[in-house]
Amino acid sequence: MPGGTDRHAGARVPPHSNPTILPFPFKEVGVEFALSDEQRLWQDTVHDFCEKEIRPRAAELDATASFNHEALPKLAALGLLGLGIPEEFDGTGTDPLTAVLAIEELGWACGGTGLSVAAHGGLCAESIAASGTAEQKRRWLPDLADGEHGLGSLALTEPGAGSDLAGGISTSAVLDGDTWVINGHKAWITNASLAPLVVCLCRTDPDAGNRALSMIVIPADAEGVHIQPPEKKMGMRASPTHAIDFEDVHVPADHLLGERGHGLHQTLRVLDGGRIGIGALAIGVARAALEEAVRYARERRTFDRVLASHQAIQFMLANADMRIEAARWLIYRAAWLREQGRPHTREAAIAKLHATETAEQVCRDAIQVLGGYGYSSEYPVERLYRDARLLTIGEGTSEVQRMVIAKGLLDLH
To answer: Fewer C-beta within 10 Å: the chain N or C terminus?
Structure first.
C-alpha cells in the first residue's frame, strides 16, 4: 500500500480534534462500505507526513506566495505525486477514495500545496492515464510520478471561456503534416510555472460542434510557449497560477490524447474526478479551521467563563462539525461511485458544491469565534478563509454545480 511502513503497524486513527468526524461504515445499495485497514493506515501515514513536512511552512508560503519546492521529493517518495497514475507507470495505483483521503490531509495542512498536488494528479496525470496510448503513458507518466521535473498542469480556462468550454475555447491547433501548430491564450492555469508539460484543450475543428475540441500534450519548454507572471491572488497563494500564451507552438502529431474531437468528453470526465478532489481539499481546509476554533474556544475566557461554555459558540461549532461530516460522506460516496465505474456526474457536483460551501461557512464562523484575533494573519483562520474562497469558484463555480444537478434532476439534455 502506498505510504505504508512498519512504524504504522496496528495503525491508529489520525489525531483529528473530534472523533465524530472519523469515517464509519455506511451502506450503498445494500453493499457494506467502510475504509479498509490499508486505507486507514494510508490516511494515518499521510496525516503524519503533512503534520511534519507540510503544515509548518503553510503560513510562510502564503505570506511569500511561494510553492514548497523542497517538499516535492518527499511528496513523490510517499506516493502523493503518483495519485491517479497506474503502478505500471510508477504511480501508486490508488483508487479514487484512497486518493481523496490523501488530498483531504494535504488540504488540512496547506491549501495551496494540496491544490497543486490535486491538479497535478487529478487533472494532468489523470488526463493522460485515462486517454493516452500505452506509449504516451510510458513517455510521460513516470516523470510526473517522480516529481523531479515539477508538477503537471491542465490548461482549460481562457480569458473568454471559463465555464463555457464547449463554445468558448478559441485556442487553436491546426495539423500541418505531422505537426500541430498551436495558437491562443489560457488563463488561471494551476502549476503552469512548475510543469514539464501542459495538457491543453484546443479547438481542432472550428465547425464540428461538440466534436471541435481535442486534448494535446504540450512540453512547457517548447518554443512559443510563454508563461506569464504569477497571478496575485487572495488565497491559495502557495499554489502558482499563471496565464499561458501559445504563439505558433509546434508539437508532434502523436501528442494528441485520445481521438481527435473527443476533447470535450475527455475534459468533462476528468472534471468529475477533479471536483471530487476539490471537495476533499475543502474538507481538509474546513477541518483545520474547526480545530483552531475549538482550541481557541477551550482556552479563551470571557465574562469569567471559557468561551466554549457559551451556547452560541457551542451551536456554531456543532453546526460546523455537522456540515463537515455530511460533506465528507458526500465526497466519499462520489469517490466510491467513480471507483466502481458507475455514473457520478451528479454526485460529484453535489459533493463539490456542499463541501466547498461548507468550507467557506466553517472558515467564516471560525473567524467569528476568534473575534478580532481571527481577522489577524497571526492566526491561521484568516488564511484558511482566503483559501476556502477559491474552492467555490475553481473546478466549476457553485452556480455551475447547481446547473449540473438541476439538469439531471429535470432530465434536461
So the answer is: C
Domain CATH for 291 = 1.20.140.10
Distances (CA, A) of 340 to 28, 121, 287, 335, 343: 12, 19, 27, 9, 9
Residues recorded for the chain: 413
Cα gap 169→160, rounded to integer Å: 8
> Nearest 5°: phi and psi at 345?
-60, -50
Residues of the chain with pLDDT under 50: 1-26
d(CA 94, CA 43): 12
* Cα–Cα distance list, 240 to 99, 185, 192, 310 (Å): 22, 17, 7, 41
pLDDT digits (tens, 9 = 90+) for 41-93: 999 999 999 999 999 999 999 999 999 999 999 999 999 999 989 999 999 98
Residue 8 lies in a domain: no
Whether residues 35 and 121 fall in one domain: yes
Query: DSSP letter string over 228-246?
Result: PPPP--SS-TTS-EEEEEE
Looking at the structure, tell me whether residues 187 and 256 fall in a common domain.
Answer: yes
Question: Which residue in 99, 127, 129, 125 sits closest to 114, CA to CA?
Answer: 99
Taking a C-beta distance cutoff of 8 angstroms, is the pair 335, 281 a contact? no
Predicted local distance difference test score (pLDDT) of residue 168: 83
The grid coordinates listed for 410 are: 429535470
The confidence score (pLDDT) of residue 301 equals 83
pTM: 0.90
d(C-alpha 150, C-alpha 117), whole Å: 10
Any idea which residues carry the catalytic annotation?
395
pLDDT of residue 8: 33
